[in-house]
Amino acid sequence: MKLLKAGSAAAVIAALALTATACGGGEDEKSSGGSSGGSSGGGKKITIGIKFDQPGLALKKPDGTFAGFDVDVARYVARELGYQPDQIEFKKAPSAQREQLIKNGDVDFIVASYSINDKRKKEVDFAGPYFLAHQDLLVRADDDSITKAEDLNDKKLCSVTGSTSAQNVKEKLAPKADLQEFSSYSECLTGLENKTVDAITTDDSILAGYAAQPGQQGKFRLAGLSLSDEYYGIGLKKGDGRLRADVNAALKKLVQDGSWKKAVEANFGPAHYKNAPAPQVTEGS
Ligand code: GLU
What is the pTM of this model? Predict the structure, then answer.
């Protein structure tokens, strides 16, 4: 197999994201709503919302399979609820659509670098948290003009609509930055590479995955700023207390039996991402 030429990885990621968008229901195998019958166990199929373009967290590979930490967490939780891998339908859950997908019943739950916050809790419930990330910046490796959040104020900054990262920039981190909101971080990465934007902001867990892509090493640099605490939760329909309790039990077991550590090492190890320890499950208790 030929190695990817330097520079082509971003294009591959962007193409994957575009294909996923263009294909509509195609990438989701079958288009259907949440299907577990409302709560855990025994249903024929479970529909789980994930990202499709975040290497290390959740990536749809060219052969149609999925890999990443969120994918491993989703599969583990599904198994604890009584679903085998072939009973899982992964549905694309872009940042801005997550609450709506849950409220519409298009998914049973969402495992998609989904930060728990009060605004979202008005619309959906969360189980977890199961991971702690921090907002950071990704810049071109040869650009030393951005070392802190305030340096963004006269720069073109890319983030994603509906993300906490974009909201934090607008509200507190760099209100004067020229913020461009795209629908996915892989589109931001293409912009950073093409110099149409100067920096990307989102969780360090996501940015580390992009920086470590084959063909990308050495091109980008994480600022290492830890601009916020992002506690990832599993998003669920409001009021389904039984499902939340079952998912919380699965997340506790994930950590206790060593699967959390294994998944972290397997998925974030290649990017040399220094993760925080597993957080305590606190939602719903
Ligand atoms: N964790 C942040 C959020 O939930 C940023 C990553 C994302 O957009 O998925 O908004």
Answer: 0.86
